[in-house]
Specification:
By secondary structure, the protein is α+β, with helices and mostly antiparallel strands. The chain has 5 helices and 5 strands; from the N terminus they run H-E-H-H-E-E-H-H-E-E. The chain has a 5-stranded antiparallel beta sheet, covered by helices on one side.
Length: 162
């Protein structure tokens, strides 16, 4: 299941994978709190408590974007669909941590991402999510899911000390 998530990420040695965890999130903005709680407990298990603040901020922004912009107006699961449409994945390699959020939309995340435009409009109440992701992670990106899967994955990468 992780293979579609690795698509589009910078190359990593598959033998260096040291952990992965994921959780389904309900289609409600309150799910952001659950995503942060899940992130805190996962990072604690991996001995990465010191990275929680930055990673949690990025996870919050990615999940919020998915819940606000990537779900159809009627975001209840389709008939026969057993899990919520948004899923958070955390993957750890020896020198990298990746946060990935899968959602059902194939649209580009956040429309046209332009950090300089966001900086000029820094007094706006919203619209700065991907700017924060860019500022707090080492890199980020997105890719549509392949094959019979529909939707996309938006990911953020954090470099770790060896």
């Amino acid at each position: 299941m992780l293979e579609p998530l690795r698509q589009g990420l910078p190359p990593v040695d598959p033998t260096a994978v040291s952990g992965s965890a994921s959780c389904a999130l309900p289609a409600r903005l309150e799910a952001v709190r659950g995503a942060r709680t899940f992130t805190r407990s996962t990072l604690a298990q991996w001995g990465l408590d010191d990275r929680f603040d930055d990673v949690s901020l990025v996870v919050s922004e990615l999940v919020t974007n998915a819940l606000r912009h990537a779900l159809p107006d009627d975001s209840r699961p389709a008939p026969g669909e057993s899990e919520p449409p948004v899923r958070l994945h955390l993957m750890r390699w020896s020198t990298r941590l990746v946060c990935a959020v899968r959602d059902p939309s194939e649209d580009r995340p956040g429309g046209c991402f332009a950090p300089e435009a966001t900086e000029r409009n820094s007094d706006l109440e919203s619209g700065r999510g991907l700017f924060l992701v860019d500022a707090y992670s080492d890199s980020w990106g997105w890719h549509p899911l392949a094959g019979r899967l529909t939707g996309k994955v938006v990911w953020a990468l954090f470099a770790l000390q060896d």
